[in-house]
């Protein structure tokens, strides 16, 4: 068995987080693509509580929950840290990563997938949270949330760095624009040009086709 | 200004988490009770994103989100660690603390505060999550989730160590019993007899009176 295995799904931004961190660290791993419609018995054994990807298996021991995995990776392989050293900066990074998971991602899910009559309100809320995140980056004045190099928050925000544009295109929506979020769009350019990031992302045309068909199959109008 | 200040609310188990950690560490602090119906301008300044307690202010810098604060406290004051040293054990502790926040607490909130016709299902789900947590403690075979001393998960679980019994009494419910959760009830005894914990908990009679009146004022039947 390989020392490091990752059970993931190619269209899961949470799985991509783990790949990004492993690539930033230069850790070799075996990737196992899970079929989410028919999960493997190994996945269920490794993550009996949530039965979800991603699961990182290191020396036969499973670690689950993407943000928990990211911190584990950073503590286990010290090179190219994705967490700051200072306790206050570490707390700040954890705060924003949690903000992305608790507020931003659910809001964007709603904005993209809710019924027509609920969509405008959901878009407004999603943009409000994204502006909060953009303001943080603007106040820091650095290229990345992690400073000069990508860190926990950048990796946690990968949905916004890549997926969002494709989902907007697939749904024929354009509520997040460069004009409204100039600092964030600069970040997207920087983020998506990092080699560890580029190598971890699914091909755009494949994603676009998948999501276009999902939006078309939706009973709600797009 | 004191070096360490805590903005909290006496009936918030999230605020109590921070007090417990500070007491375990022996860190002196000034406690400021917030009126949640009329939050202070300082609280809003320190936590503009969520506008919630608890907020820890250390050297004039605010830290928010209770689990983030606990890790900050552990990294800043090294004595009496509440996090394990080994990265895998650290990941495990973070996983269970997150499980408590994401699954257990919302489920118990539903079980206690939902309409009569939704209550049975909510109770079942809450007990299912609590059993998952109990199984983890049982498998560890230690006095506390933290091992021989209380750690992150014990502190995160303080709601179950103290509040739950009082809420059940106030609502005249008894769906979580010692017979069903023997390992968990042993943990409650150990947990609530630690001095750092006892000192951080609001008086039982005050809590009981507050919650009895809340349940009585509810439009749902208890």
TrEMBL record, chains A, B:
<dbReference type="GO" id="GO:0006749">
    <property type="term" value="P:glutathione metabolic process"/>
</dbReference>
<dbReference type="GO" id="GO:0004364">
    <property type="term" value="F:glutathione transferase activity"/>
</dbReference>
<comment type="similarity">
    <text>Belongs to the GST superfamily.</text>
</comment>
<feature type="domain" description="GST N-terminal">
    <location>
        <begin position="2"/>
        <end position="81"/>
    </location>
</feature>
<protein>
    <recommendedName>
        <fullName>glutathione transferase</fullName>
        <ecNumber>2.5.1.18</ecNumber>
    </recommendedName>
</protein>
<dbReference type="InterPro" id="IPR045073">
    <property type="entry name" value="Omega/Tau-like"/>
</dbReference>
<dbReference type="InterPro" id="IPR040079">
    <property type="entry name" value="Glutathione_S-Trfase"/>
</dbReference>
<dbReference type="InterPro" id="IPR045074">
    <property type="entry name" value="GST_C_Tau"/>
</dbReference>
<feature type="domain" description="GST C-terminal">
    <location>
        <begin position="86"/>
        <end position="210"/>
    </location>
</feature>
<dbReference type="InterPro" id="IPR010987">
    <property type="entry name" value="Glutathione-S-Trfase_C-like"/>
</dbReference>
<dbReference type="GO" id="GO:0005737">
    <property type="term" value="C:cytoplasm"/>
</dbReference>
<dbReference type="InterPro" id="IPR004046">
    <property type="entry name" value="GST_C"/>
</dbReference>
<dbReference type="InterPro" id="IPR036282">
    <property type="entry name" value="Glutathione-S-Trfase_C_sf"/>
</dbReference>
<dbReference type="InterPro" id="IPR004045">
    <property type="entry name" value="Glutathione_S-Trfase_N"/>
</dbReference>
<keyword id="KW-0808">Transferase</keyword>
<dbReference type="Pfam" id="PF02798">
    <property type="entry name" value="GST_N"/>
</dbReference>
<dbReference type="InterPro" id="IPR036249">
    <property type="entry name" value="Thioredoxin-like_sf"/>
</dbReference>
<dbReference type="Pfam" id="PF00043">
    <property type="entry name" value="GST_C"/>
</dbReference>
């Amino acid at each position: 068995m390989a020392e490091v295995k990752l059970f993931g799904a190619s269209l899961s931004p949470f799985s991509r987080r783990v790949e990004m961190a492993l690539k930033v660290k230069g850790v070799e791993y075996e990737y196992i693509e899970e079929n989410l419609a028919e999960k493997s018995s190994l996945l269920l054994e490794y993550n009996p509580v949530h039965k979800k990807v991603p699961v990182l298996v290191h020396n036969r021991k499973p670690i689950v929950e993407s943000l928990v995995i990211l911190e584990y990776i950073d503590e286990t392989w010290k090179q190219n840290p994705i967490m700051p050293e200072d306790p206050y900066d570490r707390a700040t990074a954890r705060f924003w990563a949690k903000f992305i998971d608790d507020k931003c991602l659910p809001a964007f899910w709603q904005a993209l997938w809710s019924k027509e009559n609920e969509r405008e309100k959901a878009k407004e809320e999603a943009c409000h949270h994204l502006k909060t995140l953009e303001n943080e980056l603007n106040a820091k004045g650095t290229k990345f949330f992690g400073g000069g190099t990508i860190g926990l928050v950048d990796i946690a925000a990968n949905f916004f760095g890549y997926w969002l544009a494709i989902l907007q295109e697939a749904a024929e929506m354009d509520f997040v624009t460069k004009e409204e979020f100039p600092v964030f769009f600069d970040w997207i350019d920087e983020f998506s040009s990092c080699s560890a990031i580029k190598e971890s992302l699914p091909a755009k045309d494949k994603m676009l086709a998948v999501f276009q068909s999902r939006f078309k199959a939706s009973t709600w109008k797009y």
